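Bug #77: duplicate submission created two jobs. Keeping one. Sequence:
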Amino acid sequence: MPFLQTYTVQFIVVAVVYFLVLIAIFLDLWAGVRKAKQRGEFRSSFGLRKTIGKVSNYYNMLFVVTIIDIIQMLLVLLLNEHASTVLPALPFLTLGAGAFACAIEAKSIFEKNTDKEKARVQETAKMLSEILKNKDNQEMFGAFLEYMKKEKPKVENE
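Kept job's structure:
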């Protein structure tokens, strides 16, 4: 099969991109756990589930752009063989999508704790407004108040 022999290097590049995106996601997870520890937040499986969802979303995007890149490389192969052209066949979209995903993860890793706190306050305010809309649900309101009363354990910075 000439396509596989011709484009072995490109497939290795695609595999490296996929691996680097996975590494970036896990670095973000590690940084998130570390920051949560510093803020004294309880760490639960919620963050891990978010990470699994993130892996799924990024890889769905990567699979689609890789399919487009394969079609593009097949077209380049045909043009190079039948039209005597010398066009480069590189997985441009996969490289770009991988760089985009890694850039998002890098931004998340270097995001300040204060930004995370702002997001948490906004989430809490949104939850409170939903509870106030449904005043009939006293149990939910009571649980929210209990949650707000709990003191967060202090964790020393590492």
